[in-house]
Structure formats: C-alpha cells, structure tokens
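Hi everyone,

Forwarding the result from last night's run.
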Amino acid sequence: MTVFTKRIRGFSSIIALTSALAASQLMAEGSLTVAMQLEPPHLDPTSAAAGAIDSVTYSNIFEGLTRFMGDGTVVPGLAQSWEISDDGLTYTFKLHGGVKFHDGTDMDAGDVKFSLDRARGEDSANAQKALFGGITDVSVVDPLTVKVTLSEPNGNFLFNMAWGDAVIVAPESIADIKTNPVGTGAFKFTNWVQGDKIEIERNADYWGTPAILDKATFKFISDPTAAFAAVMAEDVDVFSGFPAPENLPQFEADPRFQVLIGSTEGETILSTNNQQPPFDDVKVRKALAHAIDRQAIIDGAMFGYGTPIGTHFAPHNPAYVDLTGNSNYDPDLARKLLAEAGFPDGFETTLHLPPPSYARRGGEIIAAQLAEVGIKAEIANVEWAQWLETVFRGKNFGLTIVSHTEPMDIGIYARPEYYFQYDNKGFQDLMATLNSTTDPDARTKLLQQAQTTISEDYVNGYLFQLAALSVAKVGVQGLWVNAPTQATDLTAVSWAD
C-alpha cells in the first residue's frame, strides 16, 4: 500500500466521520427533550384537574373547537369558523374538513357532539364541568357542521371552548384514553414509561400546519437539585417550569442557555376550607390573610419571581384590580381578629403541600408565619394523586397551597361544591350576570366587582401570580414565554439553523 493510498483512505474516513456527525446533528435537531417537574396522573385532559396533563397534551395531542395562542388570544381550532345567533343562544360551528384522529378515523360533527355531551353529562368526570353547564343541546347539522344551543348568552363561551378540558375526543378511543390518548393534534402519542418519560412523534397526516420537530420526549424530574444537574449536563434541551429559581442567574450567565421569564394564569393561593371550622368564620379567614407576608414568600420560595395578588385574578389582565391592601401583612391585627373570633391562643389545623416548589418551599414559610400569631399548621407533604383524592375531591383539609393555572377562572368561586367550598349566593348571581353579558365595558365592571367580593370575604389567602420560568438551550425557538394556559405547546418549536 502506498502512502498516497493511505492518505486517500484516511481522507475518506474523515469524510465518513464528518458525514456521520452531521447526520447525528440533524437527527438531534429533529427531536427535543423537554423536562417537567410533574408527571401527569394520566393523559385524559377531560377527566382530571391535574395541570400536568395539559402540559403534555394541549395542542400537541388534543385540540378543541378553539385554542389559546401563546399571547393569550383565542383563535379557531378544529372549528374553522362559527356564526352566533342574534340572541346569543346558538353557536353554529363549521369544522375543518379532512381532519383525522391519530388512529386514522375521521373527526366530524358527531365527535364534537359526543365530546360536549360527555363533558356535560350527569356522570361526567370533567374537572371543569361548569364550563359546559349552560349548554342545553348539541346537534349535528351535517358531518362538518355542529350547532350548540345555550340556555342564556355566555360572553365567555368561545374562551371556554379553548380550555384543555374542552378538547374533542372520539368515542372509539375513550376506553383507553388515559394511557393511550388519541387526538387530532400535530403530534401522536407513542410511549409512556411511567416515572420517567412520555414520547410523542410528528403526525404526518396532520390537517393543519405540520409540526417541525420529528419527535419529542417529556422527561419528569421532580427534585430541583436534579433539575439543575440535568440542565447543566445538557441531558435535556428545555426545562419547562424550572423548579429552582435560585439557579436562573447562573443559566443567564452561561452562553449555552437562554432563560425565558414570563407570566402565567397561575394564581398561587393559600386555599382555605370555608366549610371547616374555624375557617367558616370570616374573622378567622381575615386573620389568616393578615398573618401572611406575601413578599417574604415570593423572596424565600421563588427568589423574587412572582407578582403579589390580593384576589383571584391575573395582574396582566386589563380588568385586574390591585386589592393587596385588603390583606396587608399585619400580625398584630391577625392576633386581634383571632381573639375576637374566640381563639385568643390560636388553634391547630392542617396544611397539605403538593409537590411543586412554590408549595413545598412556600408552605414552610407560611407555617412559620402562622405560628407567630398562634395558628399551628401541621404540614403534610403529599403527591398529586393524594392531593386530588384528599383535598380536591375529598375536601378533607384545613389549608393547602396550590397555583390555579386555568385561564381567568374566577368563576370557580360560584361553585359551592368546589374544594374550598365558598357558598355566596350574591357572588353566584354576579357570575350568572357576567356569563350573560357580552358588552366589554360591562364585563370589566362585573369582573372587578367579583374580584372585590372574594377579596373582602377573605375566601382564600391570595399570595402571588406564578411566573413562567423556563430554561432552554440556545437554538431552541418557538417556545411560549408566557403561559395563558398550562401547556408546553411544541407545535411551532424548532431548532435555529
């Protein structure tokens, strides 16, 4: 063998190696690994309150008649257009043609009727069943036209249809939907290794603008320390809802990463069982509110990320009213109110804390603050499944901390059966009036009145609006910065060239 031949072969090897590396890079850029702190309990967004389900499935796997965009606007989804009757009682939706579920079956008006009827049925397990309560009839006009009739006008109806709880599902796949979700979205579910990851791949037959990524993996990393290590080691490409805000300055200083800081719809509250003594006394609830130092919680649990709130409403909403002054930190007033309510020495209660960092870290701070005024809160750290069973469904709790990430959900206070069990007929009438009002200015006034009512009733301890904190590798583009609903929408995500 001559030296010349050896050089040619060596050069060929270099070319082959370079080509292999390039192919590997292209393959890597066709996929994305997204880490999240919480794993969904199952994958049916129409039958559970866990926001982690929407984080994986919203738009990626399942779609509704309308949908939220990253800026919070509501745009057509599976419905390409609609007409509203003059009296506001009838919505006639025209569906996109050629839409197929991931199993190859056609999506048509019959599936819309099935989905809405299932959501509003007597035996519905939908966590937001109230969204569908005003529907009196769903009828199929033709395969691509469905008519929805309401009992009274609802200015929020198209907004409500964009929730993850309102996605369209097929009767053929409903039996296995929790473990094998079949939707119409730009990605198809492929695999779930429980305790580890969920995998999805691009839907080649998608009816709309196709996804850019070939596949994506959702990894579940609950521990904040492990989350930091995974991002630093570049084991994941994105960490959505990064659970350790104290690490963000380090990522901001590292040229490998980008830090996305936005807002969410997540009102983070000290939820209070309004039907359990002594919290059935407004003086006790007011004392609770004045015992809390919001800024100390934001600084200690969230390292400054978060906006103080005094009611259940997002500060970025134009109708927001700053009512934090109703519950300013005043431990002396809290003690006085407790004495007036018959608890001069305080009392004992429970504080259930689900896994998110805002709850576990914030709960320790709140327990210490409450102890200062004589309220001894026994902390119970629970997993989400246990929280849903004990607190949300069982209503067996005194206090808990949770971030309500559903969009503009002040209407939950009009539902006496909701887990914090606030029963105010005046507020319920106010919400009924709001739902039947379409004039924007009138709606704003009603929303502001609603915010004021629950703030002055001290229904819950209002803490802060949860910030949207994510870390991604440089080059990842198309991620939502803000979170108008709890979702990790990958339909427009790609790697920069």
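The chain has three domains: 32-39+179-262+468-495, 51-176, 264-467.

Cheers,
N.
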